[in-house]
Amino acid sequence: MTSPVRALWNTPAAVPVPPARVWRDWVLVGVLAPLIVVEAALRPEVPARWVWAVTLAALLPTLLWRRARPFTMLATAFALSSIVGLVVGGDPQLFTAAYFLILLYAAMRWGSGRAMAGAGVVVVVGWFVSLLGPTTSGDVIGSVAVVVSISSIAVALRWRAATRARELDRVRLLEREQLARELHDTVAHHVSAIAIQAQAGTVLAAADPDAATQALRVIEDEAARTLSEMRSMVRVLRESDEAAQEPAPGIADLDRLAAAGPPAVRVTVTGDVGALPSPIGAAVFRIAQEAVTNARRHARHATLVDVTVRLDPDRVRLDVRDDGETTASARPGFGITGMLERATMLGGSCTAGPAPGGGWLVAAELPATGAGS
Q1: Triad 348, 351, 354: Cα angle to 5°
Q2: Does 281 score more than 70 pLDDT?
Q3: I need a labelling partner for 32 at 20 to 30 A (CA). Which of 109, 214, 226, 323 fits?
Q4: Phi, psi (5° rounding) for residue 81?
């Protein structure tokens, strides 16, 4: 096989994986079943209309499995309809037979490369079988145009979804890389403190045992914090490049978000900030920064963005809310995906959506002591 054909043949099924069945599938089958009967009753001029009505009704269940088994359902529908067409001597002329195009769309949209190639073969074979009966050039051109159009739309949507999935993966990887940089800075700080205290303890051990003991306690504390922060970021990888020289931002830097405006940003922090681990503080800042940026870009007629941080002994709660016009829920963009990824990796959670009473709300909750291993 040539390279393009081999590439098509080895193409995996579409991502993300579609749901096997949704409520709309049952509605579609429930609507088409009586429509087939009504059309057969109202169109007495259609040859063998009741034979075709029974055939089309019998094939309706293929719509329920079209995403899970796209090629099998398409091949079943075309094979049975071709056999019936050869027996009765003609194609199904009922308009409701157009639901076969949904099966073709599903094969091209969700199937693997083999399913797509097989679907093409099945359609071509079915087309040649239809030529055995009476047909016109207009029918041939029209059928080819419809098949090509449906297939093109399915492939275009498939490509678009795959591109978005790759972009989301890229955003997640970038978020992990940034987290790893911040971990690098935090761990380097603690290890430096350990090294300094160890050197001091060595010098003071003979002359002042109490000071050496105190140095050991500091080393123990710093080592425990370092291990805790490393466990919280386990399996987070970073590409080998120069680490950023600028220290990781924290809750104390939230006031910087008000500088760009408008809309105005009001920051409220309650609780003890001093005991918060650096990765958690950096995560709070990054999530708040992304939420404020989204509000400035997308919140219609917003005049104020409230950033509220509440620190409890075991949890940190962040709420970022704007007073713009209420908008409908939308699928997560790259910025929201980054916020969710960061919160999840630290053992917390993050949600984003329309706020009660108007505006948009981003709410995140993180463990105040860092995630466990």
Answers
A1: 160
A2: yes
A3: 109
A4: -65, -35
